[in-house]
Write a structure and sequence with these properties.
single chain, 239 residues, alpha/beta, Rossmann fold, putative n-type atp pyrophosphatase, domain 2, 4-stranded antiparallel β-sheet
């Protein structure tokens, strides 16, 4: 009997990439990646450089479904909980359409500590009748980061917005030295070692689940307190 296909919520960042990698290692039949491209800030989703998810999906070899929700008037939202509820709706509609066509056996998610995100994805999975696979959930952040590095993930920082993270962090590779410095910033300022609170955002440019690494050309945008990479070109390196 053929297993019902799984989908992986996928931004191209380290957490969703690790969830996907662990699902594939566990033998789950992930047949579709799903990337939400928010307009503006989002409480639910990774925002920067989501267009690079298409290159990552090509390298991974799994088809990608893009979900591009229309922006809504945040001034009309009474609280952040309502905003999260509204943000999950276009994703759920897209997954409902997939489920009607092919069925969905499970959904992977990269939540680490955010109950705001995880509870909404879990409730969505319940409504879809799908299993939730969240292999990062409530694991020690430093241990997760080291597991990613040990597995061969190449992780680039594409956005920073926290005390102690200056312009020099933009484009930096998350390696053992960077992890050591992030732990020091956690002790001093409370910066989350995995950037769970939006302190920094990443993309995975290479890993054992990818056939070719992603190469980038970029500029940096920095306002004195926060900044991001503006990717001007990206491609898969021939190997």
């Amino acid at each position: 009997m053929t297993e019902t296909p799984w989908v992986s919520l996928f931004s191209g960042g380290k957490d969703s990439s690790w969830a996907l990698y662990r699902a594939l290692e566990a033998g789950h039949p992930v047949e579709r990646l799903v990337t939400v491209h928010p307009e503006g800030d989002s409480y639910m989703y990774h925002v920067p450089a989501t267009d690079l998810a298409a290159l990552a999906a090509e390298s991974i070899g799994i088809p990608l479904l893009n979900v591009r929700p229309e922006a809504f008037d945040t001034e009309a939202v009474t609280d952040v909980g309502e905003q999260g509820d509204r943000e999950i709706q276009p994703l759920e509609r897209a997954l409902e359409a997939l489920s009607e066509e092919h069925g969905i056996g499970g959904v992977t998610a990269g939540a680490v500590e955010s109950d705001y995100q995880n509870s909404r994805v879990a409730a969505m999975c319940d409504r879809l009748g799908a299993e939730l696979f969240a292999p990062l959930w409530h694991h020690p952040p430093a241990s997760l980061a080291r597991s990613m590095l040990d597995a061969g993930f190449e992780i680039r920082i594409v956005q920073v917005a926290a005390a102690g993270l200056d312009e020099s962090w933009l484009g930096r590779t998350l390696d053992e030295q960077a992890l050591h410095e992030l732990q020091a910033l956690n002790d001093r300022y409370g910066v989350h070692v995995l950037g769970e609170g939006g302190e920094f955002e990443t993309i995975v440019t290479d890993g054992p689940h990818m056939d070719a690494p992603i190469e980038l050309e970029h500029d940096t945008q920095w306002d004195g307190q926060r900044g991001r990479l503006r990717v001007t070109d990206a491609w898969l390196r021939e190997t």
